[in-house]
Amino acid sequence: MSLLTIALKDLRLLARDRAALLFLVLVPVVVTAIVAGTLGGDSSILLPVVNEDEGPVAEALIELLKEHVEVVEVERARAERMVDEESRVAVALVLPTRLSKRYLAGRETTLTLLTDPAKRTELETVKAYLLQVDKQAASLADPLSEELLALEERSLTGKRLSLSAAEQSVPGFSVMFVLMGVLFGVAFGLRDEREWGTLTRLRAAPISRAALLGGKLLARFLVGVVQMLVLFAFGHWAFEISLGSSPIAFLLMTLAIVFSMTGFSLLVAAFAHSREQIIPLGLTVVMIVCALGGCWWPLFMEPRWLQSLAHLTLTGWAMEGLSDLLLRDRGLSEVLPTLGALLAYGGVCLAAGSRLYRLSD
After folding, report:
1. Do the Cβ atoms of 205 and 274 come closer than 8 Å?
2. How many domains does the chain contain in total?
3. Same-domain pairing of 213 and 356
4. Does the N-terminal or the C-terminal CB of the chain have fewer CB atoms within 10 Å?
5. Is the pLDDT assigned to residue 105 strictly greater than 50?
6. Could you tell me if 142 and 278 are in contact, meaning their C-beta atoms sit under 8 angstroms apart?
7. Domain containing 87 — which CATH number?
8. What is the rounded distance in angstroms from the CA atom of residue 266 to the CA atom of residue 332?
9. pLDDT by residue (tens digit) across 137-152?
10. In what order do the strands lie in the sheet containing 70-73?
11. Which residue has the higher pLDDT, 165 or 110?
12. What is the domain extent for residue 132?
């Protein structure tokens, strides 16, 4: 009987914390929905096509591509901006002039791919679709044939045409684990201070609330920075991932990312009113923002409506900044907008979290 009595007592205590129960249910439901919607649905790839030929063969090729990707015909300058400056797509296809005439004459023609190798998975997917389209055209007795289709790749965002799988995955998982560490560190740290009574004693001392809260957040911020640097140093040593061409830009990006995480963590901690709520709430938030922000998979794999939410998350900005520095070899001046966005994100979360946490005391 004592065993059942203790079990019933714990169940009653758990039932009192309805928010914790809600988060326990919400975590698997929300994450499962996002994963199923991403991995179980069709990839959403936008492919700009520069049709300089405008002949029957080019039109046939475009129609076949539309069966696999979302094709938009644009001018070459616009296509280059979409790949390079806007980072909206991984590749743009250029169909050269006289393509139809050369194919009809049985002469090989080279199609140009304007690429962003930083989006390796999406780029390889488009290449596979192009090969499939070529085979489809041949099977339909189209003038196209495998021997007449050649691809020339030109990177618009860096010197390298290919990147390793580690360079794609290490930044995402590093961001996820640092965010998890900072969030739980802030939430549990503040909760422990309150439950141990040290928070009350500290507030009775001649210490301002801003100094008290700032000091605790600063400690977590510094731990997060060290963790981020260690993870990337390990990735550089073990997997030979690039750390970019500008050490100063990389350091500033690290500081901005962890600052945004610290402010965000305080905001999340303000909504956890018990220790039992911290873990399910923290896991829910971390998994959602990491999934939406591109830490687990390339954004093109997500439905278009989920892709539009990426930049509502700090992870979306963090992944964009790290990709610019590490995969596209961009310098400090080129990532300043992303740095500004991360600092603004962290500042807004810090202000809101400070306000809400004070009210929740």
Report:
1. no
2. 2
3. yes
4. N
5. yes
6. no
7. 3.40.1710.10
8. 28
9. 665 544 444 456 677 8
10. 70-73, 46-51, 91-95, 109-115, 149-155
11. 110
12. 46-155
C-alpha distance from residue 271 to each of 29, 275, 283, 349, 353 (Å)? 20, 11, 13, 13, 9
Question: Over the stretch 333-355, which tens digit does the pLDDT of each residue have?
Answer: 999 999 999 999 999 999 999 88
Long-range contacts at 268-273 (CB < 8 A, ≥ 24 apart): 268/183, 268/187, 268/353, 269/183, 269/186, 269/187, 269/190, 269/191, 269/353, 269/357, 270/353, 270/356, 270/357, 270/360, 271/356, 272/187, 272/191, 273/19, 273/360
Unique residue bearing structure tokens 């039992």 = 276
Please give the single-letter amino acid code of residue 233: A
Question: For residue 61, what pLDDT is reported?
Answer: 87
Q: Are residues 110 and 225 in the same domain?
A: no
Of 173, 183, 174, 172, nearest to 286 (Cα)? Answer: 183
* Residues 261, 123 share a domain: no
CA distance 172 to 352: 26
- The verdict on residue 245 lying in a domain is yes
Residue where a domain stops, chosen among 108, 135, 155: 155
State the angle between helix axes of 2-16 and 18-39 in degrees (0 to 180), rounded to the nearest 10: 70
Nearest to 117 by CA among 80, 164, 47, 50: 164
pLDDT-derived band of residue 1, with 50, 70 and 90 as boundaries? Answer: low
Helix (H) or strand (E) holding 97: none
User: Residue 274 has which token pair?
Assistant: 């018990």
- Please report which helix (H) or strand (E) contains residue 141, including its range: none
- What average pLDDT score do residues 189-193 get? 79
If you ran DSSP here, which 8-state letter would residue 270 be given? T
SS3 326: helix
Q: Are residues 197 and 306 in the same domain?
A: yes
Q: Which of 146, 177, 180, 150 is nearest to 283 (CA)?
A: 180
